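Hi R.,

Here's the chain you asked about this morning:
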Amino acid sequence: QVQLVESGGGLVHPGGSLRLSCAASGFTFTNVAMSWVRQAPGKGLEWLSTITSGGSTTYADSVKGRFTISRDNAMSTLYLQMNSLKPEDTAVYYCLKPGYRGQGTQVTVSS
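And here is the predicted structure, written out as tokens:
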């Protein structure tokens, strides 16, 4: 069955960096566009970024220039490098394939 397992979240100071990972299994990772979304406390899901099977990337304006999505098809792993983090980036971060979402990893940006 499809499994998406996020990791790498934590507590970081404003201006800091984190790298999130999403280990995928149960499907042919290479063939699928993957995305990151997040949900801040009391808010709905916010799309952040998508990477196609061919490696093309798109970003939400809120994270463009600060976050970088990437994938390692050999390892079936999706990444999100997050730099210049702000308190408003505090949220649960999820990786996504069409129809499936992982359990999420908490990112807290606070001084």
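One quick note: DSSP finds no helices and eleven strands in the chain.

Cheers,
M.
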